[in-house]
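Agenda item 2: 5-O-phosphono-beta-D-ribofuranose complex prediction
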Amino acid sequence: VSTQVLILIGSPRDWDVMKEAAAELDALGVSHRAHVASAHRSLDRTIALVREADAEGVRVIVCGAGMAAHLAGVVAACTVRPVIGVPLPGGIADGLDALLATVQMPGGVPVATVAVGRAGARNAALLAAEIIALGDDALAGRLRAGRAAQVDAVTAADRELSGGHGGVG
Ligand code: RP5
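Presented output:
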């Protein structure tokens, strides 16, 4: 199976958070690979990686970056494949800076921006999988099973907290 999701990170230090995206894709059986590709420190190489992924047929690109987080925007400028940006904590506003840098794209070049940090890394993988599942019924089934497991987990936690009193089922 060729790579379905390309994960790019601006710094090797970003992997501690972005490995959550890789783990979620692994759990869903979505093929992926990751590269360090800084929009600022290695611009030409970043563009080359995106062009290569584009030619190869990678379906979705997930970008994690902190501080002046331009990676997702630069990647989106190079492709019409869906790009998902994960703003990372750190910097003077601990991720709010990266959130604004990632989400505030000018009209014409979209970046689907998710939450700051680990929740965002997970959701980026899930959103990428949902996009791919538009043409993959088996993957859509695995995503539905994941949602059902969440319902079970919340219900079990509620039973434990409430002692089973006053619930709906
Ligand atoms: C961004 O700047 C990276 O995505 C990273 O989150 C942040 C800091 O990078 P380092 O100086 O730690 O390599 O480009």
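Discussion summary: The beta strands are 5-9, 32-36, 60-66, 83-88, 112-113.
Owner for follow-up: CH.
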